[in-house]
Amino acid sequence: MKKKIIHLILLSCKKATELIEKKSLFGLSWIEKTQLRLHTNVCDGCTIYQQQSILLDEAVKGQFKNDALKQRILSSLDNETGLYPGTDN
Amino acid sequence: MEPSMHTSGTTKTIRSWVLLYFDSLYSWAFYKTSSKESAEDLVQETFLVALKSFDKFEGRADPKSWLFGILRHKITDYHREKYRKQTIPLSEQPDHASENPDHASDRLLSTMFNADGEWNVPEKPQPWPEEAGHILDNPDFNQVLQDCLKKLPRSWFSAIQLKFMDEKKPAEVCQELGVTPTNYWQIIHRAKLQLRKCIQINWFNG
């Protein structure tokens, strides 16, 4: 029971990590921001989760890009040999 | 018309479009085909068509929707072709976890957290080594990440993919996925928990 009351104010780790992800999509209300800050102030696990979550976002974002192909298309345009050098000439 | 005959003005314009719209077109093609190779082909073809039929564009206002229009046709053709030759899909279909996402979610949450919603001790995030920031450029790490992404249930993977499409606002993503905003960030939460755990085990060996 005591834990339930503490979690109501300080959030559980499950709820805190949910807010961390919600924050990156929709932002948080003032109350949620305060709750999350109070929670991460006393919780190592969630503080670490938050840092790693940001790093993971960066890494995942890179997966859906393709800079190599972008550069290939740009340089084939620069050479004006068309997008498929070798087949167009 | 041979590409060598294009005026440098045309090439210059197409070049600026590649810089502006390549990322959006590519991530859209990847989302729609679930295949890196097919997305690469379709986006290359899109710019090739744009170059060849540039004179048809002139006078139109919005290059982005023109390019997306070309790509959309290419994607439709791709799916029609794939449907016709039933042989292609097997090799191209990513092997996403087939478990019901709701079950996957329940199982994941009960592994990660106790009944009070606190981290279960073995699952509590531990610091990654100092140099973890450099992993982003490491091809081996990116391979592990790709494998971990493939292990997500299909619908979680789609949510993650849409989250990182630059021009998609969260509200549009919800519409695309047919979920409420609360569903959406909860899906992302489950997906990130699982990804973090997968990376922890397969990259940081813990």
From TrEMBL, chain A:
This is Zinc-finger. It comes from Pedobacter caeni.
UniProtKB/TrEMBL annotation, chain B:
The keyword DNA damage does not apply. InterPro entries: RNA_pol_sigma-70-like (IPR039425), RNA_pol_sigma-70_dom (IPR014284), RNA_pol_sigma70_ECF_CS (IPR000838), RNA_pol_sigma70_r2 (IPR007627), RNA_pol_sigma70_r4_t2 (IPR013249), RNA_pol_sigma_r2 (IPR013325), RNA_pol_sigma_r3/r4-like (IPR013324), WH-like_DNA-bd_sf (IPR036388). GO terms for molecular function: DNA binding; sigma factor activity. Residues 144-195 form the RNA polymerase sigma factor 70 region 4 type domain. The keyword DNA-binding applies. Residues 21-83 form the RNA polymerase sigma-70 region domain. Keywords: DNA-binding, Sigma factor, Transcription, Transcription regulation. Transmembrane segments: none annotated. GO terms for biological process: DNA-templated transcription initiation. Belongs to the sigma-70 factor family. ECF subfamily. This is RNA polymerase sigma factor. It comes from Pedobacter caeni.
